[in-house]
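Students often ask why inverse folding is considered easier than folding. One informal answer: many sequences map to the same fold, so there is more than one right answer. In these notes we will look at a single instance of the problem. The structure comes first.
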C-alpha cells in the first residue's frame, strides 16, 4: 500500500498549524493545530482556568492566547481540545477560535509556529485523516467537493460521498474480486493436487456481474458532472434574434450588451444560474452568420466551440419575422446535440406569423414561445431546461453517483481488465493469465478508495485543497 510509503508517513512526525477560516475580516477566525505536540504547544500559549493538559476533550474553554516569551495578551479566545483518535485528523487536535481579524489570527499562528508547529500544506489536515485511516481517499476528495458545492443537489451528492456511499459500493466490488482472485490462486498453486477444480463458468459469470455493476456506476458519471459543474446551456441563433436579451432575462440581470444592431455580441459570455436546484452555466454567443468581418468570424469560431461542448442548446429564432433558410440551416447543424427551440419576440409577432413559424419548425415538443423583452414564457422555458437536464441525469437522489473524473478513469480501467479476464476464461486460458487481469482490475478499483495509489496522485489531490482543511 503505497499511501503508507515513506513520503507521507514521515510527515506525520510534525505538528502542523494553519488558519482554517478564509482570509479577511470576520466575526471569528479559527487557528487549528494537529499532531502529537499540539497539546504541548497550546499549553505554552493558552492561559485559561486550567493548563491545557488538564482540560477535558471536546469541550469549549475560555481563555487568552499570550506571547510565549513576553506574556503579552494577543487575543481573548475559545479553545477546544480534540484528543486522538476522535478528531478530524485522528491525531491530537486543538482549535482556537479567535476574533476574526487577519492580524490577530496571524499572530496566534506565529505563536504556534514559534512553539514548535510547522505551517500546514494545503489539504494537510484532510491528508492526515486519510493516512491515519479515519477516512478513505474518495471521502477525502468529498471534503473538497462539499466545500466547492454550488447547489443543494451538488452538496447532497458530495455529502453522500463523504459519508462513504461510494466507498461502500467500491469496496463491495473489491471484496468480490479478492474472493475470485483467491480461488484462482488456489487453482494455480494446487492444480496438481487433490482440490476441487475451479468452476470456470461460475467465475466468468461472477466477473461479468461485477463488470455490469461497474458499467452502471460509470453511466452515472454524466449526472454527477452536471450536479457538480452545472448543465452547460448554450444560446445560439442568427444575429439580432435576442440571444443576449434572453441571457439577461434568464439571469435577471443586465449581463450582456443588447442593441438593435446585428452582430452586437462578439465574444462568448457565460454566467452561472440556479434553476430549481440545478446549477446551470448559461452561455451567450455571437450571432451565427456568414461574415467577412474578422472579429465577427473569430466570435463565430468561438460559438462553434461552445456549441460542441454544450449539454443543451437553446436555438433562438425571431418570430416577429418569417423563419428563413438560415434559421433552418442552423437547426440542421445543431442536429445531434440536444436542443430546445426558442421562438422569441412573441410580443411583436402576429399570431398568424407565430403559427406559421411553429409549423415550419415542426417540433412542438421542444418549442418554447417567449418574449425576452417582456418576460413572457420564461418560467416555462426554465422548466423545460430543468426537465431536459433530468433526462440527462435521471434525477436520482438514491444510489451512488460518480462525479470525479479520477474515479471514472480508474473504474473504466477496472472494467476493461475484467473484460479481458472474462475473455481469457472463455478461451480456457490458464488461470495465471486470468489472475493477472483480475489483479489489474482490483488495483484500479483500489485507486478510488486509496488502497493502491501513488504519492503523485496524493500530491495532486491534496494540493487542490485550501490551506487549513
Ligand atoms: N420586441 C422585442 N424585442 C426584443 C426581444 N428580445 C430582444 N429584442 C430586441 O432585439 C434586438 C436585439 O437583441 P439582442 O439581445 O442584442 O440580440 P442578439 O441575438 O444577442 O444579437 P447579436 O448579439 O447581435 O447576435 C434589441 O433591440 C432587443 O431589444 C423581445 O422579446 N421582444
Ligand atoms: Mg448578443
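Output (designed amino acids):
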Amino acid at each position: 500500500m503505497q499511501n503508507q510509503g515513506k513520503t507521507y508517513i514521515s510527515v506525520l512526525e510534525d505538528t502542523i498549524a494553519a488558519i482554517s477560516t478564509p482570509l479577511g475580516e470576520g466575526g471569528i477566525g479559527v487557528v487549528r493545530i494537529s499532531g502529537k505536540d499540539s497539546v504541548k504547544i497550546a499549553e505554552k500559549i493558552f492561559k485559561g482556568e486550567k493548563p491545557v493538559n488538564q482540560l477535558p476533550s471536546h469541550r469549549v474553554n475560555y481563555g487568552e492566547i499570550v506571547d510565549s516569551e513576553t506574556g503579552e495578551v494577543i487575543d481573548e479566545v475559545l479553545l477546544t481540545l480534540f484528543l486522538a483518535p476522535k478528531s478530524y485528523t485522528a491525531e491530537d487536535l486543538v482549535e482556537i477560535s479567535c476574533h476574526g481579524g487577519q492580524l490577530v489570527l496571524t499572530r496566534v499562528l506565529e505563536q504556534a509556529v514559534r512553539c514548535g508547529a510547522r505551517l500546514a500544506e494545503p489539504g494537510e489536515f484532510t491528508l492526515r485523516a486519510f493516512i491515519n485511516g479515519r477516512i478513505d481517499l474518495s471521502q477525502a476528495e468529498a471534503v473538497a467537493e462539499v466545500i466547492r458545492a454550488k447547489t443543494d443537489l451538488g452538496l447532497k451528492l458530495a455529502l453522500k460521498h463523504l459519508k462513504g456511499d461510494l466507498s461502500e459500493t467500491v469496496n463491495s466490488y473489491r471484496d468480490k474480486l479478492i474472493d475470485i482472485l483467491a480461488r484462482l490462486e488456489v487453482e494455480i498453486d494446487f492444480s496438481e493436487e487433490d482440490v476441487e477444480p475451479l468452476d470456470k463458468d461460475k467465475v466468468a459469470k461472477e466477473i461479468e456481474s461485477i463488470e455490469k455493476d461497474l458499467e452502471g456506476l460509470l453511466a452515472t458519471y454524466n449526472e454527477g458532472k452536471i450536479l457538480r459543474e452545472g448543465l452547460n446551456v448554450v444560446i445560439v441563433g442568427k444575429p439580432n434574434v435576442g440571444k443576449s436579451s434572453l441571457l439577461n432575462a434568464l439571469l435577471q440581470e443586465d449581463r450582456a450588451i443588447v442593441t438593435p444592431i446585428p452582430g452586437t455580441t462578439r465574444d462568448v459570455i457565460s454566467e452561472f444560474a440556479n434553476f430549481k436546484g440545478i446549477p446551470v452555466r448559461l452561455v451567450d454567443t455571437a450571432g451565427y452568420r456568414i461574415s467577412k468581418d474578422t472579429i465577427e468570424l473569430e466570435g463565430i469560431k468561438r460559438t462553434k466551440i461552445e456549441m460542441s461542448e454544450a449539454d443543451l442548446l437553446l436555438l433562438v429564432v425571431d418570430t416577429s419575422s418569417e423563419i428563413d433558410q438560415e434559421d433552418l440551416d442552423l437547426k440542421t447543424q445543431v442536429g445531434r446535440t440536444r436542443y430546445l427551440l426558442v421562438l422569441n419576440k412573441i410580443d411583436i409577432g402576429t399570431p398568424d406569423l407565430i403559427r406559421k413559424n411553429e409549423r415550419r419548425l415542426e417540433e412542438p415538443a421542444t418549442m418554447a414561445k417567449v418574449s425576452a423583452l417582456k418576460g413572457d414564457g420564461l418560467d416555462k422555458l426554465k422548466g423545460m431546461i430543468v426537465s431536459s437536464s433530468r433526462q440527462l441525469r435521471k434525477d436520482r437522489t438514491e444510489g451512488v453517483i460518480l462525479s470525479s473524473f479520477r474515479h471514472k478513469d480508474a473504474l473504466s480501467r477496472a472494467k476493461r481488465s475484467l473484460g479481458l479476464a472474462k475473455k481469457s476464461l472463455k478461451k480456457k486460458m490458464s488461470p495465471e493469465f486470468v489472475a493477472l487481469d483480475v489483479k489489474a482490475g482490483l488495483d484500479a478499483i483500489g485507486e478510488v478508495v486509496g488502497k493502491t495509489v501513488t504519492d503523485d496522485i496524493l500530491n495532486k489531490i491534496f494540493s487542490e485543497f485550501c490551506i487549513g482543511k
